[in-house]
Amino acid sequence: MEEVKNGVVKHILLAKFKDGISEEQIQEYIKGYANLVNLVPSMKAFRWGKDVSIENAHQGFTHVFESTFESTEGIAEYLPHPDHVEFSNIFLPQLENVLVVDYKPTAVQL
Question: Which of 11, 33, 63, 78 is catalytic?
Answer without folding.
Answer: 78
